[in-house]
Amino acid sequence: MSRIGKMPIPFGSNVKVSVKDNVVTVQGPKATLEKAIHPSINVAVEGSEIHVTRNDETAESKALHGLSRVLIANMVHGVVNGFSKTLEVKGTGYKFELKGDKLGFSLGFSHPVEMVLPKGISAEVNKTNNEVTLTSADKELLGDFAAKIKKLRPVEPYKGKGIFYKDQFIRRKAGKAAGK
């Protein structure tokens, strides 16, 4: 039995959870999230707890057991508290700009780059620290969007220029040594 999968998921009175045809729906004060669960996993709502069990002992079911439980727990946490990620940018002239529902970037290219914020994600730009804080109830959507932003200008190890998560450790390399 999966140690993570067998733990019940508690939720408060302000959260409504329903399961229909292997689709879990979680409604809370911040959002409503839905997730399709694999057919070999059973989800049951008992009182103010969610229990996740598996149908058989195959390797696939064992792997999906803990995963499904964590995904549902993230949904419950997201509709109540939400998730946030903060991205920083370092480099001469590099900056973030918020233009309505678009996030603009000046990253040293010959043109500015713009990305439309997906539905369910909000952004807040701190221009003094060159930071953007992304918030959402859906952890998966938030992580995917933050990864796409980081991919625009990955951190280069010599000068440390690029986009990175706040508090992320950047491994720096030494430059070329002087001549003989």
Q: How would you sum up this structure, described in words?
A:
The chain has 180 residues and is α+β, with helices and mostly antiparallel strands. The protein folds into 2 domains: 9-80, Outer Surface Protein A, domain 3 (Alpha-Beta Complex); 83-165, Ribosomal protein L6 (Outer Surface Protein A, domain 3), CATH 3.90.930.12. It is 20% helix and 37% strand. It has 2 helices and 13 strands, in the order ββββββαββββββαβ. The strands form 4 sheets. It has a 4-stranded antiparallel sheet, covered by helices on one side. Strands 1-6-5 form a 3-stranded antiparallel sheet. A hairpin with a 4-residue loop joins β3 and β4 (32-36). The longest helix has 22 residues, at 59-80. It is elongated. 23% of the residues are buried. The mean pLDDT is 92.
Features:
Outer Surface Protein A, domain 3, 180 residues, alpha+beta, 2 domains, 4-stranded antiparallel sheet, 20% helix, 3-stranded antiparallel sheet
Order of helices and strands: EEEEEEHEEEEEEHE
Count of domain modules: 2
Number of strands: 13
The overall pLDDT average reads 92
Brief summary of the model shown:
The protein is an alpha+beta fold and 180 residues long.
What are the SSEs and their pairings?
Elements: E1 9-10, E2 16-20, E3 23-27, E4 32-36, E5 41-46, E6 49-54, H1 59-80, E7 83-90, E8 95-99, E9 102-106, E10 113-116, E11 121-126, E12 131-136, H2 139-152, E13 162-165
Antiparallel strand pairs: 1-6, 2-3, 3-4, 5-6, 7-12, 7-13, 8-9, 9-10, 11-12
